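Record 8840_t:CDS:1, 117 aa.
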Amino acid sequence: SANFDSHQWSTAITYEKTNVQDSYRNKSSLQCTINSSKRKQKQNTKQSPITTKPKKKARFNKESISNESSLTYEQEQQLDIDYKKLTVQKSLNDELEREIRLRQQLKSLCNTEPNDK
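=>
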């Protein structure tokens, strides 16, 4: 009866740990998976981050970011120039439209005057 009780306790403990039913007969593969998961957890906690490769990449990234920032500064200057050109062109277009309206008004006035005389 002591053997039976120990077997019952071991199956109950196994069920609590792994949520596997009592009818699970192949306890060795179950124990292998439990041990495997424990090893993986230990490896995850023991692993230290690799610092040499990211530092090299970080330096390269910093240089490329500084190059990109200079490109963006040059691009910003070009955008400012383009914006100024557009504003000048818009003002010229506005002046031309105003001149066209005035000429049309003058033409309509000239056309209406001879009819009145």
